[in-house]
TrEMBL record:
It comes from Streptomyces flavidovirens. This is ATP-dependent dethiobiotin synthetase BioD. The lineage of its organism: Bacteria, Bacillati, Actinomycetota, Actinomycetes, Kitasatosporales. Catalyzes a mechanistically unusual reaction, the ATP-dependent insertion of CO2 between the N7 and N8 nitrogen atoms of 7,8-diaminopelargonic acid (DAPA, also called 7,8-diammoniononanoate) to form a ureido ring. Belongs to the dethiobiotin synthetase family. Pathway: Cofactor biosynthesis; biotin biosynthesis; biotin from 7,8-diaminononanoate: step 1/2. HAMAP family: BioD (MF_00336).
Length: 231
């Protein structure tokens, strides 16, 4: 597949690190990778954003692209409106991703927050861009209590729109998982409507030195994503 959309069940749950792991694994296979961030919020001009972080962790052969940047840490539609800037439109995302797919072996489109966070005041979302691209969505979710509900809601939203859910990756697996985390590993595929659990990235992975991150990334993702991880 040329394009994968990475969404989350919420914010600050590890989407960027999972995206970097996907890119790093693709690079071990000799594939060129582009990471597209449609809307980066909460950063001033010149500050490194999520796409730059993926490039830093995944290394050479990965290109980061931002379509829009808004300074306040808000949902893209709200951040664009408050900044007096044009919002991101799903067509813009789909057009940019399709063009990158002609130049790179793999294009990773990393959303902002959850699947249905608004891009504009008309209610367009990352799901609309995924549908235009006819691209599968990989859902990043937490490990802790509450993840089954948010994963089920995201899966239901994807099914309702006719969008393929590629699977689920746990964005930050604790070093000492409790009962809820251990049970969620078993229950997440059912909550995801049968979509498989495709990996678990350990907490703190983003703080690893880039060389170590790249060396370990294959152990965090399941074989369908190019790795060796098993639930």
């Amino acid at each position: 597949m040329a394009v994968i959309v990475i969404s989350g069940t919420g914010t600050e749950i590890g989407k960027t690190v999972v995206t970097a792991a996907l890119a790093a694994v693709a690079r071990t296979q000799g594939r060129t990778v582009a990471v597209l961030k449609p809307a980066q919020t909460g950063l001033a001009p010149g500050e490194p954003g999520d796409a730059a972080e993926v490039v830093r962790l995944a290394g050479d052969g990965v290109t980061g692209v931002e379509l829009a940047r808004f300074p306040e840490p808000l949902a893209p539609a709200t951040a664009a409106r408050r900044a007096g800037l044009p919002p991101v439109r799903p067509h813009d995302v789909a057009t940019a991703a399709a063009k990158l797919a002609t130049e790179y072996d793999l294009v990773l489109v990393e959303g902002a927050g959850g699947l249905l966070v608004r891009f504009d005041d008309e209610g367009a979302t990352l799901a609309d861009a995924a549908r235009l691209l006819d691209a599968p969505v990989l859902v990043v979710t937490p490990a802790a209590l509450g993840t089954l509900n948010s994963t089920a809601l995201t899966a239901e939203a994807l099914r309702a729109r006719g969008i393929e859910m590629l699977g689920v990756v746990i964005g930050s697996w604790p070093s000492a998982p409790g009962l809820a985390e251990r049970c969620n590993v078993i229950d997440l595929p059912e909550a995801a409507g049968g979509a498989p659990l495709l990996g678990a990235v350990p907490e703190g992975a983003g703080a690893l030195a880039p060389a170590e991150f790249r060396a370990r990334a294959t152990t965090w993702l399941a074989p369908p994503l190019g790795g060796t991880w098993q639930p």
